[in-house]
Amino acid sequence: MLEKLKDKTILFLEDNNDFAKNTIVLFHIFVKTVHHAATIAEAQQLLEIHAIDIVISDINLKNENGLDFITDLRTKNSSIPIVIISGHKDEEFLFRSIPLNLTAYLLKPIKYNELIETLTRCSEKISLSQKQHIELKEGWYYDTESKVLEKEGVTHNLNKKETLFMELLMHNRNRLVTKEMLYASVWQFEDMSDSAVTNFILRIRKRFGKEFIYTLPDLGYRLKP
């Protein structure tokens, strides 16, 4: 799977130049290009200029918060693999990052085996996003190009929130989807009440069947097997 990264590009947001130089050498073993940014403004500029496949960002930047950059990026791109790195485990940052659909949270110094595992997951995520028909569960497919749900030759058109929800499920088919993730990906940080979420899930079940989505009380939702 790592072979598929040979032509890919990483955007690396890191304000420690010594750490960045050493880490970039390591990244180049697996990818073709690494663009380094020391500030959020530089990272945003690089995103506008270059085609970026993977984003790897420190969160404790000088006078800046890497999560602010990632949160803004997620409003524009819901599928790009994002990896956070940090010099220490910060529970507050970790909690805030839950809705951002991160591929990994790595601690400095980065361990080689953890990097291998993380880049493998990034490669899998890129391959998934490039497919047109993604199986959400048995019989149900999401078309990433036309943004519709299909089953047994029948096409189901989706509204905006339903589309964002299906894409969230697509990227978390074997994981729990929390209310925080819904807030970030489906409501896109707009006002969201518990009743709004409940009614939304009820409409999903009414349209696609009671067995389509499973509720874990007080935790979230996941596709039923």
CATH superfamily of the largest domain: Response regulator
The level-1 CATH class of the largest domain:
Alpha Beta
Indicate the structural class.
alpha/beta
Quickly count the helices: 8
Instruction: Count every beta strand, where a strand is a DSSP E run of 2 or more residues.
Output: 14
Tally of distinct domains: 2
Mean model confidence by pLDDT: 90
CATH architecture of the largest domain: 3-Layer(aba) Sandwich
Helix amount: 40-55%
Q: How many whole angstroms does the radius of gyration measure?
A: 18 Å
CATH topology description of the largest domain: Rossmann fold
Largest sheet: 5 strands, parallel
The unreliable regions are none
Order of helices and strands: EHEHEEEHEHEHEEEEHEHHEE
**Quaternary organization:** single chain
Termini Cα gap? 26 Å
Q: Could you give the order of strands across the largest sheet?
A: 2-1-3-6-7
Shape, principal axes of CA atoms? globular
